[in-house]
Amino acid sequence: MSALRDEGGVPCLAALMIGLVYMERETSFTASELADRLGGLLQGDGSHSVCSVATLEHADSDTVSWVGRPDLISRAAESGAGVILLPKGCLPPPGRTTITVDDPDFAICEIQRLVAPPCTKVRSGVHPTATVAADARIEGACVGAHVYVGAGVEVGQGTQLHSGVYVGDHSQIGRDCVLWPNVVVRERVKLGNRVVIHPNSTIGADGFGYLQRDGAHHKIPQTGTVVIEDDVEIGANTAVDRARTGVTRIGRGTKIDNLVQVGHNVDIDEHCIIVAGCVIGGSTSLGHHVFLSGQVGVTDHVHIGDGAQVSGKSSVMSDVPNGHVIRGIPAIDLRRFLRQEAAVRKLPNWFDRLRELTKRVARLESQNRKGADDQTTLT
């Protein structure tokens, strides 16, 4: 996977997709049908049928696979895939059925949607075991088993609340959202349209705020809320804390991975990517299209500028300008970090050289002292 990372250590789309597992269903498509759907150039047997997607290493004749970059074309010749998507500029391996497209990484997503098994959906209506407040407005929503919907809640048309979901009083959930099992949305939280929240995540828990007085920790009331805008997806076991006052905001189109902590009053702008294990301290702000790799820690009250990238396991301790790529603990400009790492690798040789130079200086000083003593004796 390291070969599929950019110079900042941030996974490219191909690297994120390389772990895709084999998916299948009864529906199959010929290579010609796929080429027509993708607007690609077909070469080889257009009648060959495929019904699944797999990586090149795990593909067989019933599967379609893809090459994300021209320098990976050698893997295609060794793969057993029935159909292979290629980027423009690649020569098809001899005897293989291929479809050349502008962006294989994106095109393979479309094929996955065609052939993957359908996700489990909540049946229309309200399950008999669900608890729904009398004044809740849930017309057109799908409410699963053992769901709790509090007073004054509004749930939009087509939204699915899977088993065990909790929606607190006076929260609002938009249209066509999916809340997977055991998601908790606490009181007065607002979700936009087409929001997806994966199992066991909590939106709107109290922010972590205490004042120490007289040797004891006194809780700061967390009376704000959370606003999650349209087309946001949040992974499993992630927590987005409510604001102390005001709003914790997740901007439109942002995607958050599993096991992420978003602190109170954090403001995340549109189309950010936050990978697993990140921790974002309170009152921090992220511009649009920010990329935080895995296990990044961000202290409170800093700003990460538009388009900035933070490499994995880094610790952000100060503001980051727009477009910068940073790395390290504390995180610094990537080029500076790489120079420092190169210098650190040379330290053993430098210590050996320093030890040798120290001995040479000691010998010279000893000779100088002896020469001075001899001169004094002669005098």
Q: How does this structure look, described?
A:
The chain is an alpha/beta fold and 379 residues long. It has three domains: 2-115, MurE/MurF, N-terminal domain (Udp-n-acetylmuramoylalanyl-d-glutamate--2,6- Diaminopimelate Ligase, Chain: A, domain 1, 3-Layer(aba) Sandwich), CATH 3.40.1390.10; 125-335, UDP N-Acetylglucosamine Acyltransferase, domain 1; 349-379. Helix content is 20%, strand content 28%. The protein has a twelve-stranded mixed beta sheet with strand order 7-9-12-15-18-23-26-29-32-35-37-38. Strands 8-10-13-16-19-24-27-30-33-36 form a ten-stranded parallel beta sheet, with no helix packed on it. The longest helix has 32 residues, at 347-378.
Give keywords.
about 375 residues, UDP N-Acetylglucosamine Acyltransferase, domain 1, Udp-n-acetylmuramoylalanyl-d-glutamate--2,6- Diaminopimelate Ligase, Chain: A, domain 1, 12-stranded mixed β-sheet, 10-stranded parallel β-sheet, about 20% helix, disordered N terminus, alpha/beta
List the domain count as a whole number. 3
Say how many strands there are. Answer: 38
CATH superfamily of the largest domain: Hexapeptide repeat proteins
> What does the radius of gyration come to?
29 Å
How many angstroms separate the termini? Answer: 76 Å
Sequence of strands across the biggest β-sheet: 7-9-12-15-18-23-26-29-32-35-37-38
* Strand portion: 25-35%
Q: If helices are DSSP runs of H or I spanning 4 or more residues, what is the number of helices?
A: 6
Residue windows where pLDDT falls under 50 for at least 5 positions: 1-25
Q: Which architecture name of the largest domain does CATH use?
A: 3 Solenoid
CATH C-level class of the largest domain = Mainly Beta
What fold name stands as the CATH topology of the largest domain? UDP N-Acetylglucosamine Acyltransferase, domain 1
Average pLDDT confidence is 90
Bulk shape: flat
Q: Could you give a short account of the major beta sheet?
A: 12 strands, mixed
**SS content category:** alpha/beta
| Residue share in helix | 10-25%
